Amino acid sequence: MRVMQVMAGGGHGGAETFFVDLVCALQRTGLEQRAVIRRNPERAEILRRSGVSLCERRFGGPLDLLTKPALRREIAAFQPDIVQTWMVRATQACPPGRFVHVGWLGGYYKPPRFEACDHIVGVTQGIVDHMRAAAWPEARSHYLPTFAVCEPAGPIDRAEFGTPEDVPLLLALGRLHVKKAFDILLKALVSVPKAWLWIAGEGELRAELEALAAELGVAERVRFLGWRYDREALLATADLCVFPSRYEPFGTVTIEAWACQTPLVAAASAGPAGVIHDGEDALLVPVDDVAALAAAINRILESPELARNLVEAGLRRYSADFTEAACVKRYLAFYQGLLAEPAKTAVTQGAAR
Fold it and tell me: In the chain, what is the straight-line distance between the N-terminal and C-terminal CA atoms, in Å?
């Protein structure tokens, strides 16, 4: 079985991170793969170190006339049984051919953008239901969740970021984008006066968020860490992970917090609300509700028993459903099922139209 993985994503993001994690994990099983990615030296180096064969292409906008024929040549040379295209741009760059075309969805994308696919994979059941509501056949739409790669790590020296050892430490992870609602978190911090906050991420709103922290009088308790690749160590250092996103189709932060045994508070956007059992493995609060977010944070910080119970239940959820081993097993079974007769004949004929 040969699988080509095509990713045209940007520099940083949850989908891009999961792409690398999954492709490397599948490579460790011995699956024969070739990756075609948007030019990204850091991502390419990680894949190559894992033994993944790959090439880099531009994947530009409408004026990019080179990527589609280059991808056609890559497919002709590799002769894949399955081509999995990640998100919209890669999917629309994929030519038809005698292979099973799988489109991977990490969000609530417009269904027509995936009409050339034989099958689609949604990272949440909600995304799959969204596609089925647009008349996507149930037999060709599949829920395959992500996993979190969390290697054991010791805590970071708080002094590295000028943070006292004896204060409650909150951690937020993600791009500095309006969808992530870090403005709501900063406003909530006003009502959590003893806590400090680390925000690990980068993006266009950094200056605006720094100015907001100063305006709210919490700047001395906030540290902007930039984009980090040591999430396990950050989560091991924090007393509580906060995930306040306004819009989050899935949110790998949820399962990373569970895996690293860090208590979690999340806003009830689609992804977290579809996975979290409120009050059992994390606390959910309404989106954009400053008071509710502050209250949930204080509730956990003031109750070690609650924090411990959330951590224990979250770890059970992670161990059962969101480990690398569980995810890889699901993907391999999915790929093998696609190539089983008579399904293989049906989809390859459809792809060749």
Answer: 22
Token duo for residue 36: 């075609």
Tokens of 70: 């280059």
* DSSP characters over 65-105: -SHHHHHHHHHHHH--SEEEEEHHHHHHHPPP-SSEEEEEE
Tokens of 324: 């690398």
Q: What is the DSSP letter of 195?
A: -
pLDDT in tens, 79-114: 999 999 999 999 999 999 999 999 999 999 999 999
Contact 3, 32 (CB under 8 A): yes
Structure tokens at 130: 């969204």
pLDDT at 343 over 90: no
For residue 182, give both structure tokens.
């870090």
Instruction: Catalogue all structural domains in the chain, each as residue range(s) with its CATH number.
Output: 2-147+323-351 (3.40.50.2000), 158-320 (3.40.50.2000)
Q: Shortest CA distance to 268 belongs to which of 258, 281, 278, 259?
A: 278
Residues 6+ apart with CB under 8 A from 349: none
Which alpha helices (H) appear in 55-205, and where do they start and end? 67-78, 87-93, 125-133, 182-189
d(CA 353, CA 348): 9
Contact 113, 89 (CB under 8 A): no
Q: 227, 174 in Cβ contact below 8 A?
A: no
Q: How far apart are CA 3 and CA 187, in angstroms?
A: 46
CA distance 249 to 245: 10
* In contact, 22 and 68? CB cutoff 8 Å: no
Q: Is the model's pTM score more than 0.70?
A: yes
